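Thread amino acids onto this structure.
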């Protein structure tokens, strides 16, 4: 795992972006940091590259959380929710990955969600625009603007624990995608500074959504 960017600041509001995980390109995973349930889940993957990808990602997440919480990676009290997402009692935890790049958002006292995507191909823009903003949420858009809106809504889905379809239908961008409003609640949207940071990776776009202010980005 290679640390690419860290928002810094107190651990109660922290965003970390790292690379070199989830590619399935190594010979062996490193399951010793995983708990028995995670190792059992890894063993259920039929394809070896998928099993290694899961082990790589979860090991990296435990390493990052262990550093933030001051405990060993294996001692991080992660457990899995009904939707398969990792949970950390007393914290709002959100994860996202795109290729070999992964991102983690950790917060206490607010809900948070994070999403990272490769910038959409131009040929997909019109189809995605009609799905994302049927009544026109942003006046001018291109592939990057639409990808940013998508990441904001997917991050909202994670923060609010709703399906992506619900997020696309219920969350509306305001103030130039600096916020989303859904069911009367306003969520702050912060764009991750990913552009041009990762040579060899596709152009990336990412957002953090929370019910309060996020770390300084």
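Threaded sequence (217 positions):
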């Amino acid at each position: 795992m290679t640390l690419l960017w860290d928002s810094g600041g107190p651990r109660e509001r922290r965003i970390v972006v790292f690379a070199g995980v989830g590619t399935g390109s190594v010979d062996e995973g490193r399951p010793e940091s995983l708990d028995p349930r995670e190792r059992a889940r890894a063993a259920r993957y039929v394809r070896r590259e998928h099993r290694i990808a899961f082990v790589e990602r979860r090991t990296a997440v435990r390493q990052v959380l262990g550093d933030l919480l001051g405990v060993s990676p294996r001692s991080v009290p992660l457990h899995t929710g009904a939707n398969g997402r990792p949970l950390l009692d007393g914290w709002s935890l959100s994860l996202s990955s795109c290729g070999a790049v992964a991102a983690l958002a950790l917060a206490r006292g607010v809900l948070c969600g994070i999403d990272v995507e490769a910038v959409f191909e131009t040929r997909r823009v019109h189809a995605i625009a009609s799905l994302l903003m049927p009544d026109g949420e942003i006046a001018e858009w291109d592939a990057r603007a639409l990808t940013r809106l998508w990441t904001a809504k997917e991050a909202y889905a994670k923060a609010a624990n709703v399906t992506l379809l619900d997020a696309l239908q219920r969350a509306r961008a305001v103030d130039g995608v600096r916020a989303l409003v859904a069911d009367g609640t306003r969520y702050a949207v912060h764009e991750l500074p990913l552009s041009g940071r990762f040579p060899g990776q596709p152009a990336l776009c990412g957002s953090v959504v929370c019910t309060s202010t996020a770390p300084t980005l």
